[in-house]
Amino acid sequence: DVAGSVFRVGGEPLTPARERLVRAAGCRALPRYSLAEAGNLGLACGRPEVADEVHLVTDRVAVLQRQREVGSGAARVEALVLTTLVPESPKLLLNVEIDDYGVLSSRRCGCLLEEVGLTRHLHTVRSYDKLTTLGMSFLGGELIELLDEVLPARFGGAPGDYQLVESESPQGLPRIDLVVHPRVGELAHAEVVDTVLARLGDHRDARRMMARLWRDGAALRVVRSEPMVSAAAKVLPLHLVREPR
What is the distance between the alpha carbons of residues 183 and 185, in angstroms, rounded to a whole number? Predict the structure, then answer.
């Protein structure tokens, strides 16, 4: 029983589904947004409106946004651009994009961080790194929503029980495995594949066309095993495996 514990979390998005898991155990999750090249960029808001809401440490870093077109169908995101302001920063950054986007705002929350002058908020931080295979691209945020919210709601399980693994066949062809943890229970693999392709192809005509190509080419298959862990001990939504041809 870990009820009453407080977890400082970082390194991966604190999605609403993950925050609910922590809260269901009687605990709190305090997100921290950081970058190895710049240190802490954001500290948990004491009165958040969104699960991963942080106060930007604007005495250490300036954060702007630049619109980017990414993914199939020219999806647009507000990419974060950083400039470090203090000599103690591990790296000197000048308008550096870090492949993240999010929602920037200024509001009065009444927590202690606002009292010391940190009034800029950031939340819903996601990566615009993309899964691109067989001609179709997906944003990192789309994959997280699919794996953390859509599939557990439809088939059971929890965040961390589903993972996409991209690899290359011995013939050099790309392939995608949807890894599902055995504890999820019995599944109809065809129904799971239908759900994934319907979700990934439901936004734009080009995506629907490519989802059909994935289906026709049997590019997506369901594999029952524990999700793969990265060298940094993370269960990433998208895990890349490079096999020799």
Answer: 5
